[in-house]
Amino acid sequence: MVQEVVVDVAAGSAEQSTGGVRINIIPRDGGNAFTGSFYASGTSDRFQSDNVDQKLRDRRFISASTVRSNFEVNPTVGGPIKRDRLWFFGSGRVSQVNNYMAGALRNANAGNASSFAYAPDPSFRGSRDSEWKSVNGRLTWQANQKNKVSVFMDVQNRCSCIDMRALTSPEASANFQFPTKRLVTLTYTAPLTSRSPV
Fold first, then answer.
1. How many domains does the chain contain in total?
2. pLDDT tens-digit readout, 143-197
3. How big is the chain by its Cα radius of gyration, in Å?
4. Which of 1, 13, 20, 141 is spaced 20 to 30 A from 129 at the CA atom?
5. CB 126 within 8 A of CB 101
6. Taking CA 167 as the corner, what is the angle to CA 161 and CA 169, rounded to the nearest 5 degrees?
7. Does the reported pTM lie above 0.90?
């Protein structure tokens, strides 16, 4: 949803209240030609090595933290609704990060009423799974040569389910569920003068 990012590391100008690094982000707003892009990436545990040797296993180190499956998909599309007047732009993103966690344990005697002793289950691999989703869109109306109105909406949600950690059993792990967040902005731009800034 961003077409240009400008990072300013020079001294602050008189129009800024503070100095330091400033980032100016220019959003995409479609245009008179239909354009789009598609980005996808992913991996799995087949692309990762494991350095757990017998010496570590003798110390009861069962496994290392490894990738289970990670992927991201990001499509975008934009173009004219009415040439030179009304444009749209939209994008979406789905990203999952699922990792096996070293030291995430499960009690093999869990649920066994006749045994209260803890016994690690060597066949269990604890996982920390997170998913992010985002959809956004922008509608831009060029009322005339000097006046432009833009409406932007972004909807996001995230869930880390189950968020396992080392030395934590599945039944003691937490789910981090973030409610859907919505951001809506309305922007009106119009130059007050035709003079160039000094």
1. 1
2. 988 899 999 999 999 988 877 877 777 777 788 888 899 999 999 988 877 765 5
3. 26
4. 1
5. yes
6. 50
7. no
Q: Which amino acid belongs to residue 158?
A: R
Q: Which residues have CB under 8 Å from 191's CB, separation 6+?
A: 146
User: CA-based angle 92:94:95, to the nearest 5?
Assistant: 140
CA distances from 86 to 25, 141, 148, 152 (A): 22, 5, 10, 14
Residue 151 lies in a domain: yes
pLDDT digits (tens, 9 = 90+) for 89-128: 999 999 999 988 877 777 888 778 888 787 777 777 788 8
CB 52 within 8 A of CB 64: yes
Count how many Cα atoms sit within 13 Å of the Cα of residue 28 in the half-sphere of its side chain. 22
**Which domain, by its residues, includes 79?**
29-189
User: Residue 184 domain-assigned?
Assistant: yes
DSSP state of 32: S
| Residue 10 domain-assigned (yes or no) | no
Three-state DSSP state, 52: coil
SS3 sequence of 95-120: EEEEEECCCCCCECCCCCCCCCCCCE
22 within a domain of the structure (yes/no): no
